[in-house]
Design goal:
Layout: H1 5-26, E1 33-39, E2 41-57, E3 68-72, E4 77-81, E5 89-90, E6 95-99, H2 102-130, H3 136-161, E7 164-166, E8 171-176, E9 183-184, E10 189-194, E11 199-206, E12 218-223, E13 226-235, E14 245-251, E15 263-279, E16 284-285, E17 291-297, E18 300-312, E19 315-319, E20 328-330, E21 343-347
Parallel strand pairs: 1-21
Antiparallel strand pairs: 1-20, 2-11, 2-15, 3-10, 4-6, 4-9, 5-8, 6-7, 8-10, 11-14, 12-13, 12-15, 13-14, 15-19, 16-17, 17-18, 18-19
Helix pairs in contact: 2-3
């Protein structure tokens, strides 16, 4: 037994340092997490709703006529001349198409001659009446003939005027549908005109959003990357049963450069207020709709629950207990970051 004791003690002494080294490893320093940060700031926020539609001419209102017109022949006739050309700028009452007026011109000449004769007869009867040299009945007949002649001439001139088909508004000729020598009937559409400075974006708004959209609200109308600013000017009150939407019109400036029929996306600003924001990347979204932000306290972080709000220009509104302007929060590394983690700031 005495021979084995030194060996056992030697074994115990040899094993001691190994256990001490293992204990040192268990108490090694907590690792640092490299993070980027940002600051909670106050910002004016806009909540937008996006809708889709097309550019159309402005509709008629109590104050103004419609911005487009399909001009039709009022009476039947033969087309003789067509001054209108597609793309041409025209003014109100400018002649676009002329119909054969030979018979109408002759009718005006006959009516003018009849009126001249009726005036002479009436004048003569008036003179004779002053001399008591005519009957009251003849004077009345002359007066009636004069009135009839005036009415006939007026009707002849009206019929003649209908043969000159004129522009009902200032605008640009979009399309000409007739050529000289063609016969037209009453109601035939001969020319299409549009005032290209009076356009609106007509978008379709789901019924569930109609209460939020109001006339006068600002809107950005976008086509192929270009934004045009406008205002909501009309809200339809009839829901399309097939789509569940109602039309909303956004007035566009005369310099919009847009064309009738273009497809557009409109962002209508339905709410504006000031709130506290952080970069979108600073919020860890939760399944219940809430969010987490990692607030920096010293060299550690504290995960705090917040309610995300409006997103605007890469920023998101947050509200929550103890959230205030000036707090510093972790941005891109917030996902997977544990509460109370030690951090090292490496950028903003």
């Amino acid at each position: 037994m005495r021979l084995y004791l030194p060996v056992i003690l030697a074994g115990v002494l040899c094993s001691g340092p190994a256990r001490l080294l293992h204990a040192d490893e268990e108490t090694s320093p907590e690792p640092l997490v490299d993070v980027h940060i940002s600051t909670v700031k106050s910002m004016s926020l806009q909540r937008e709703l996006t809708f889709y539609g097309t550019v159309v001419p402005e509709q008629a209102t109590e104050a103004r006529h419609a911005a487009s017109a399909s001009v039709a022949a009022s009476i039947a006739g033969l087309v003789t001349t067509v001054p209108a050309i597609a793309g041409m700028v025209v003014h109100r009452d400018e002649v676009l198409v002329q119909l054969d007026s030979r018979q109408a011109d002759a009718a005006v000449q006959r009516a003018s001659a009849s009126l001249k004769q009726a005036k002479a007869t009436y004048s003569r009867q008036q003179k004779l009446a002053r001399l008591d040299d005519t009957s009251h009945k003849k004077l009345e007949q002359a007066e009636q003939q004069l009135a009839q002649a005036k009415a006939t001439l007026k009707e002849a001139r009206t019929q003649r005027a209908l043969l000159d088909i004129k522009a009902p508004l200032d605008g640009i000729v979009l399309q000409v549908n007739v050529r000289p020598g063609e016969a037209v009937t009453a109601g035939t559409m001969v020319v299409e005109i549009q005032d290209v400075d009076r356009l609106v974006a007509e978008v379709q708004v789901p019924a569930s959003y109609l209460e939020e959209v109001q006339t006068g609200q600002q809107a950005a109308v976008q086509t192929t990357g270009k934004d045009t600013q406008g205002k909501v000017s009309f809200i339809g009150m009839r829901i399309n049963p097939a789509t569940g939407t109602a039309p909303v019109r956004i007035t566009l400036p005369a310099t919009s450069g847009l064309y009738s029929g273009q497809f557009v996306r409109a962002r209508v600003i339905v709410e504006t207020h000031t709130g506290l924001v952080v970069p979108v990347s600073a919020v860890r979204h939760q399944p219940d709709g809430s969010g987490l932000v990692a607030v920096i306290t010293g060299n550690r972080v504290k995960l705090q629950t917040v309610k995300p709000g409006i997103e605007d220009d890469g920023q998101v509104e947050i509200t929550g207990k103890d959230i205030r302007e000036g707090l510093q929060v972790v941005t891109r590394e917030v996902y997977g970051l544990p509460d109370n983690a030690r951090i090292r700031i490496i950028g903003r």
